[in-house]
Design brief:
mainly alpha, elongated, 135 residues
């Protein structure tokens, strides 16, 4: 029994190192993807004045690329948690809404049949042979 908590404690550094390596690898891949994008045909106008024309991601400084890649990693991790959670909540709500009428019907049937169950129990008690007393 005492080996289980210590083995769990020993796994945490491995899990954290694995997650850090995966995050670093994803950042590197996102950085390469940002470099390969080149010029995006994006225009931004504020009050009729063009503020941005043809966004060039390859011209970003390394710190800006790291910030962009980190933001994209955060978005990916958020979506990896939010989408399954939204699906789970939706399916759970649908099941609850489907089972709620069934539970109401079962409760109504139990309420209607409860006097019959009481009569059956009373008849069984009245008609069963009496228990014999053992010395």
């Amino acid at each position: 029994m005492s080996d289980a908590p210590t083995s769990r404690r020993r796994r945490w550094p491995l899990v954290l190192v694995t997650l850090a390596v995966l995050a670093a690898g994803t950042l590197v891949l996102l950085g390469q993807a940002i470099d390969s994008v080149g010029v995006l045909p994006l225009s931004l106008r504020v009050d009729g004045e063009e503020v941005l024309h043809d966004l060039d991601l390859s011209a970003l400084e390394p710190a800006q690329r790291l910030a962009l890649a980190s933001g994209l990693l955060l978005v990916a991790l958020t979506l990896a948690v939010a989408v399954p959670l939204a699906v789970l909540i939706t399916v759970g709500a649908a099941l609850l809404l489907a089972l709620l009428p069934l539970a109401a019907v079962a409760a109504a049937i139990a309420l209607v049949l409860s006097p019959l169950a009481l009569i059956a129990w009373l008849l069984w008690r009245a008609l069963r042979p009496s228990p014999t007393m053992r010395p």
